[in-house]
Amino acid sequence: MKSVVLLALVVLFCSAISPISCNPVDLDELDSSKDLDIMDFERLLAADKVKNELKAKREFLQQSFMDDLIDDLGNHKRGSCNFKDSHVNCPKYKGLCSMLKQIRDNCKKTCEVPCRAPAPPACASSKFGCCWDLETEATGKNQEGCPACKDARSFCMFFKSSCEEGQRSYKYMKTHCPETCGYCDLGAKKKK
After folding, report:
1. 134, 125 Cβ separation under 8 angstroms
2. Distance between CA atoms of 30 and 37, rounded to whole angstroms?
3. How many CA atoms lie within 13 A of 2 on its CB side?
4. What's the CA dihedral at 113, 114, 115, 118 to 10 degrees?
5. Which of 97, 96, 95 is nearest to 113 (CA)?
6. pLDDT by residue (tens digit) across 11-62?
């Protein structure tokens, strides 16, 4: 008896509002439209999640490379570098330090890599020093004979954070974006 009364109330309610709003076909279309909206929203959430994960990984890698750079530049304690291992599994690979360069590069602390200052570029001892790229020998004062120092790519400014030595894209940025990175007077500074 209660279900009959409930059904009657639903019918009465639907006819009072609008006969179109309670049509089962329209409800099905509404449900499928709603499903599409939900699916689009879920796709956007998934894409955003992937984007955030990639951003977090990029930030982690940048920080990791920055830590290595600081260590490499001489965060010294009694003549040895204060190296950190890049991976938690480094102690497991200690026996491979002498055999694999990749292990030594990523597990500097575990492999007890000695601390060495980088060698100066060969052009540093020439009469006029190095050009801005620290590779080409200048043929005269004021960077004469040096290649033009200008950005080769229009997107350089977007990757300025990759200009620092130790960053993964450093070599690329040095070659293709020297102006953005401020490398143009590098050789002149080194010679002074």
Report:
1. no
2. 10
3. 0
4. -90
5. 97
6. 555 555 544 444 444 545 545 555 667 777 777 777 777 777 767 666 666 6
